[in-house]
Amino acid sequence: YGGSSTFCHFSLAMAEQCLRGEELRARHQAALLKLRKKALREKARAELAWLDHQKCCLENLQDSKGASVMATKQHKILMELKQEQAEIQHLQNIYRAAHQERKLLLKQQREILMMRHSTAQLQEKLHNLTG
């Protein structure tokens, strides 16, 4: 009976270690996606500023066709930004759901191990009483 109790303690410690590791990975993933989002916004902002500058220069030169092309490029950059942001949001949702699912599974495993431990203790008490 003592071996079973030791195994339960070991399994419980392993489940808790897995849960801590999972929480750390989730925090890292969230931080990476946040950085990706920030870099994407900064890139789009810089590209839009450059195109706006070019458009102003073309407007000053009274090149309406060139200015229109710049406006089209700006619109394209904004659409790509929205698409990338939607993709990042989708990834965040997927990672969040997967993390919650793994967390729930580990919690259930921990509860099972606790029940096994309690059962082993009760069996040991019963064995001692009948022995």
Keywords, separated by commas or semicolons:
131 residues; rod-shaped; mainly alpha; Helix Hairpins; 0% strand
Descriptive account of the structure:
- The protein is mostly helical and 131 residues long.
- It has a single domain, classed as Helix Hairpins, CATH 1.10.287.
- 96% of the residues lie in helices and 0% in strands.
- It has two helices and no strands.
- The chain has helices at 2-60, 64-130.
- Helix 1 runs antiparallel to helix 2.
- The two termini are 13 Å apart.
Write the layout of secondary structure elements.
Elements: H1 2-60, H2 64-130
Helix pairs in contact: 1-2
Protein name: Centrosome-associated protein 350
InterPro entries: CEP350/CC187
GO molecular function, one term: microtubule binding
The total of beta strands comes to 0
Average of the residue pLDDT scores: 86
Oligomer: single chain
Principal-axes geometry comes out as rod-shaped
H/E series: HH
Strand residue content: under 5%
CATH topology heading: Helix Hairpins
Protein name: Centrosome-associated protein 350
Organism: Dryobates pubescens (Downy woodpecker)
GO cellular component, one term: centrosome
GO molecular function: microtubule binding
Summarize the structure.
It contains two helices and no strands. By secondary structure, it is mostly helical.
